[in-house]
Fold this protein.
Amino acid sequence: MAKITYIEHDGTDHVIDVKPGLTVMEGAVKNNVPGIDADCGGACACATCHVYVDDAWLDKTGEKSAMEESMLDFAENVEPNSRLSCQIKVSDALDGLVVRLPESQH
């Protein structure tokens, strides 16, 4: 299991054990983390699972695909560390990952 910390825009944090092989989005949805709606179910067809990856973890979460970059165009307040959590596959290497949720997703 990888321990992932989801931090809501108001500072409320949710520390969740997520099984490797799932996505960061699936970990949030299965544990009712507010702010990650995942309207498309993880198909990279919306931006309702937008998160900010803590800078220390950017290299470990992989590169954004062209499709993910395109979908982020629909998200509000996109930053260089913005990712769609449905596109981050959980592995043991992500144990300790910290993601923050944008204020627009509450």
